[in-house]
Design brief:
alpha+beta; Aminopeptidase; 8 strands; globular; Acyl_CoA_acyltransferase
Length: about 170
């Protein structure tokens, strides 16, 4: 189940965002309790796409337990282009939760918000996320070499994308 964030998500989010293995390929450091409170407050405000700069942030839940979270946000000066991101608890991997959640996010992006294009950008060392992109139908579009300074080193970025017409094609 995907749902918006709630105050009681703080502890389950800390379980995985506080883990250096989970945040290794993310742009942020492992969460501290203060960072977690700030992030949760921000994410609770991201309830839909209605203008450039807006976002939809959702928690993935299975049998009442938070297993991860996903997001869709606009890019540029329009709502017709979006970007997606995700993070999942290590104990929930390998069960299809991320695949199902991200397919739902793409459906929301294209069918509800009528976006023209959605991308995912990820650390090129993140093999699991690259495989997820391919599973959900995002196409590899490029590799940006050493374009991001992250956690003390230059990293490459992989770019994946999908157009609305590709979503609608079986």
């Amino acid at each position: 189940m995907l749902r918006t964030y709630r105050e009681d998500d703080l502890e389950p989010l800390m379980e995985y965002y506080g883990d250096p293995d989970v945040t290794r390929f993310l742009l942020e450091e492992p969460w501290t309790p203060d960072a977690a409170e700030m992030q949760l407050a921000r994410r609770m405000q991201r309830t839909g796409i209605d203008e450039p700069g807006s976002a939809l942030a959702l928690v993935a839940e299975f049998e009442g337990r938070v297993v991860g979270d996903v997001a869709l946000w606009t890019t540029g000066d329009t709502t017709s282009r979006g970007e997606v991101g995700w993070a999942f608890h290590p104990g929930a991997t390998g069960r299809g939760f991320a695949t199902e959640a991200m397919r739902t996010v793409l459906q929301i992006a294209f069918d509800h918000y009528r976006m023209h294009r959605v991308v995912a950008q990820l650390d090129a060392r993140n093999d699991r996320s690259a495989k997820l992109c391919e599973r959900i139908g995002l196409k590899p579009e490029g590799r940006l070499r050493e374009d991001w300074w992250s956690k003390g080193e230059w990293t490459d970025t992989l770019v994946y994308g999908m157009l609305e017409r590709e979503w609608k094609t079986p």
